[in-house]
Amino acid sequence: MTDTADRTAESDAVAEVKDWLAANWDPDLTVEAWWERLGDSGWAVPTWPEEWHGKGLSRSDGVQVQNAISAHGALPAPGGLGLLLAGPTILVHGDDEQKKRYLRDIVTGKRGWCQLFSEPGAGSDLAGLNSRAVKDGEEWVVTGQKVWTSGGHAADLGMLIARTDPEQPKHAGITYFVIDMHQPGIDVRPLREMTGRALFNEVFLEEARVPADAVIGGLGNGWRVANTTLMFERSGLGAGGGSGAASLASAGTVAGDLPKRAGDFVVTGGRRGGGGAALFGSSAKGLASLAKGAGKAADPHIRQRLMQLHTMGEVARFNNLRLKAAMAAKRDIPGLPNIAKLTMSNMVRLSRDLGLEIAGAYGTLHAYTAEGRKELDEATGMPWLAGVTESALFAQGPPIYGGTDQVQRNIIGERVLGLPKEPGFDKNTPYKDLPKNG
């Protein structure tokens, strides 16, 4: 009985957003106008504080609201690294002026973001980065190279970490900036993947400029702020976190989706945007449907693997509920985001293998362009095949990005279990005196 006083806060929030959607969703609005309406209402990111464009809901309740938006047939909140990483980090470490400057443009999708962390010689050893920022009056001048920058080609702003004091040990002399990607001195070059797509980029910075008031978390505190971003990244990427359907429209001024009709980006039938076909195979339910369609649902080996994938997903989901309960009680479960990230890697690998087993010999076929995918669909009569093969090719990426599996295990071993740290002299040695990577 949903009208009685024992309704949960979750069901109240879902009922409220349903009423709001009935009164406000209009598919003929532009993406920009709809996202502005959604963002200003607080329903775009309902887990954020009310004073910063949210509703103050728990993460679990926020997922229910996102699912309700998708189920209504409305365009979901803008996806991308603004909502996933930049916004949450600024909420934790930014001052009020920075929150006013950046957060509304994130929830309304007016600006797209990218993450300028990894470098050719500083991937797993991120603190060994070489990009440098030098103070010049009221600005910082940045020179260096970043790599594996997701969405860099469509970003308005970037989360940048650069070395501001080489006299300090490598973890201490780093500062976290927000950098304008639309300026001379920034060159974004796509990196073509074996899937045929180019989701990642390398970025060259040659005397690019950042205003002094775009430092997040204070000078020299970049490592601490970056770890907050990485925590949100691992939680967002990890298994069991749950999410509503991500938007098929892209945030920011570069992608060109803001002036388009919002209703044209709504997809029915349950397929999610944002991750594209590369993440298609991660659902046990989706793969079970494929097995039925391919006549392999009775195969005991495939049934066992489907059950294994389902079980891993359920364990991850319950771990997320455990974390929610702990946080509600002002406690924490150390290492759970790292465990979720490792679980996601295992699930992606299992999905890869299972999808190819279902596809059989057809799994050796892959198309690298939109036209090629259309031709492959027509030749095989399997419109799902491109998703399976792309998922299989892409599966090597998730165990690397967001912190490799090896990094996650090191963090769990050293910071959670208290095991001895790897020997090294770099913790207290000035960065300028260290041998350089790459």
Could you characterize what this model shows?
Among the domains are: 9-77, no CATH class; 113-221, Butyryl-CoA Dehydrogenase, subunit A, domain 2, CATH 2.40.110; 279-403, Butyryl-CoA Dehydrogenase, subunit A, domain 3. 41% of the residues lie in helices and 12% in strands. It is built from twelve helices and eight strands. The chain has helices at 9-24, 31-41, 59-72, 81-93, 96-107, 222-237, 284-293, 300-328, 336-359, 370-380, 385-394, 405-416; strands at 113-116, 132-136, 139-146, 157-163, 174-180, 186-191, 200-211, 215-216. Strands 1-4-5-8 form a four-stranded mixed sheet. The chain has a four-stranded antiparallel sheet with strand order 2-3-7-6, with no helix packed on it. β6 and β7 form a beta hairpin. Residues 1-10 and 269-281 have low confidence and may be disordered.
Got a strand count? 8
Estimate percent helicity.
40-55%
Question: Which value, in Å, is the CA radius of gyration?
Answer: 22 Å
Counted by DSSP, the helix tally is 12
Question: Any descriptors?
Answer:
12 helices; Butyryl-CoA Dehydrogenase, subunit A, domain 2; four-stranded antiparallel sheet; alpha+beta; disordered N terminus; 8 strands; four-stranded mixed sheet
Which helices and strands, and how do they pair?
Elements: H1 9-24, H2 31-41, H3 59-72, H4 81-93, H5 96-107, E1 113-116, E2 132-136, E3 139-146, E4 157-163, E5 174-180, E6 186-191, E7 200-211, E8 215-216, H6 222-237, H7 284-293, H8 300-328, H9 336-359, H10 370-380, H11 385-394, H12 405-416
Parallel strand pairs: 1-4
Antiparallel strand pairs: 2-3, 3-7, 4-5, 5-8, 6-7
Helix pairs in contact: 1-3, 4-5, 4-6, 6-9, 7-8, 7-9, 8-9, 9-11, 9-12
